Amino acid sequence: MSPLYIARSKEIAARQLGGEMMIMSARDSTLFNLNDVGTVIWEAADGITPLEEIVGRKVCGEFEIDAAEALADAESFVRELAGHGILVVSDEPIGSGQVSGQPVAPPPASSEVPE
Amino acid sequence: MSTLMQEMNQRALDQGLPLSVHLDVTYRCNERCVHCYLDHDNHGEMSTAEICGVLDQLAEAGVFFLIFSGGEVFMRMDFFRILEYARSLLFCVTVKTNAFMIREREADRLRELGVQMVQVSIYSHRPEVHDAITKLPGSLKRSIAGIRLLRSRGVSVTLANVLMRQNLADHAGVQALARELGAKFTIDPTITPKMDGDRSIIGLGIGGDDLKQVFRNPDLVGDVEEFCAPPPRVDDDVLDELPCSAGHTACYISPYGDVYPCVQFPLPSGSVRKQKFLDIWRHSPELDEVRSIHARDLPVCSSCSHVGTCSRCPGLAYMQGNLRGPSSQDCEKSYARTGIPSANMLAKAAASKASHLVQIAGVRP
Fold first, then answer.
1. End-to-end alpha-carbon separation of chain B, Å?
2. What is the pTM of this model?
3. Cβ of residue B6 closer than 8 Å to a chain A Cβ
4. Which of B116, B156, B184, B254 to mutate: most A Cβ within 10 Å?
5. In whole angstroms, what is the distance from residue A90 CA to residue A5 CA?
6. What is the CATH code for A5-91?
7. Does the pLDDT at position B275 exceed 80?
């Protein structure tokens, strides 16, 4: 089976609130909350790490879950989120331009005046 | 409101988190709306770097919803840098604009940056009415053109229709325009006094029978029977209620870095130019005072039959002179909805009667 790559969609808003990850889709303003395992997968969705590696390293590493079962559940989970426009799923690595939450350098403090 | 959204609000309230922040990036504007509560000079706006620094702090504090407004946001040449930075921090962003300056490039960027909603003030579907309110010739045409560009790219747009005497006859036309543009529609019959305390513009608003008609229009309020129902019995649960989200899960930051409980509640509570946002949010005596007020602490309103359903705005009450007092504009709304005068209205009527008697007694032959 070819590896599956996942990236956080650019059309979402997200924030950890009181220990729970809240995500809103800009497409239809639907609000989602993720459990701990979902949050781990979500945060690791950088477009270049295969899902199998995320599950093996992050999920099975942090939660005592059978690897094969965890991967099957994770695949179903990411495809469901992709259906809502929350995640992008691809058979190939996804460019950073398509991943939300990529750092943008803040402007330097000097010579900044509002125009 | 969805159940999940209610849970999110409740969690923010329980944990004292600022779920939503309204940030005005400028008070400068290309329009000069007759009812505007701001002055449009630049008294020292925060720089790009200062605003981005504040955004970092807001993200860290747990802010989810971020409203960028003004003034007109596009009067700042750096607005897209600010917006891009905000979206990189994954805020759920609403942009309030008059859309006058939205062309292809701006519409493309707003789409690319995943803005949740763009809200545009439209006062009438007729240029002669809209432009007379904005005092900018051609503004309706340009605003509609901007909205069309946004909608053609799939950006969600809401038309916000502030109702005044000047445009009262046109809400159906604006609503039809919203339908044609594929935009949402909202009305607001509230005129806010100017931030310097000048209340003269309140006279532009509608009241009495006009307000009553608006509140009995199912196209505007939905279920009229429910909207205009008499207030339910007042019990302890009602008296324990909090007035609104201002200072509890939401606040406002001016272009100068001043923090207030709400854009409509100019109680100075700190400055992000002098303190960390979280220090202000957690320790400002002013915000603490706002948070301490429950319905039962309101000397007049706690005895009012409307206390459980009134839209009483603590900011309007503050601007009227008393943080814990009634907001007469909301008294008027409660009366227009139900036909039942508020405790404040009854007290004023009684006082007026008494002063009239005193005056008569004072007349000398």
1. 65
2. 0.91
3. no
4. B116
5. 5
6. 3.90.930.60
7. yes
Q: Do residue A16 and residue B77 have CB atoms under 8 angstroms apart? A: no
Map residue B149 onto helix, strand or coil: helix
B174 in Cβ contact with B200 (< 8 Å): no
For A17, the closest of B17, B56, B85 (CB atoms) is: B17
Chain segment B39-90, per-residue pLDDT in tens: 899 999 999 999 999 999 999 999 999 999 999 999 999 999 999 999 999 9
Each of the 115 residues of chain A gets a pLDDT tens digit; together they read 678 999 999 889 999 987 889 999 877 888 999 988 899 999 999 999 999 999 998 888 777 788 888 899 999 999 999 988 889 999 999 887 777 777 777 777 754 555 5
Q: What is the dihedral of CA B129, B142, A26, B45, to 10 degrees?
A: -90
Inform me whether the C-beta atom of residue B53 falls under 8 Å from chain A C-beta atoms.
yes
The three-state DSSP-derived secondary structure of B95-135 is: EEECCCCCCHHHHHHHHHCCCCEEEEECCCCCHHHHHHHHC
ipTM value, please give it.
0.85
Collapse the DSSP code of A91 into the 3-class scheme (helix H, G, I; strand E, B; otherwise coil) and give the result. Answer: coil
Query: CA end-to-end span of chain A, whole Å?
Result: 54
For chain B, what percent of residues have pLDDT higher than 70?
97
Give the Cα separation of B348 and B346 in Å (integer): 5
Locate the domains of chain A by residue range.
Answer: 5-91
What is the C-alpha to C-alpha distance for residues B52 and B239, in angstroms, rounded to an integer?
40
Here the tokens at position B321 are 């002179």
Q: CA geometry: angle at A76 spanning A70 and A82, to 5°?
A: 130
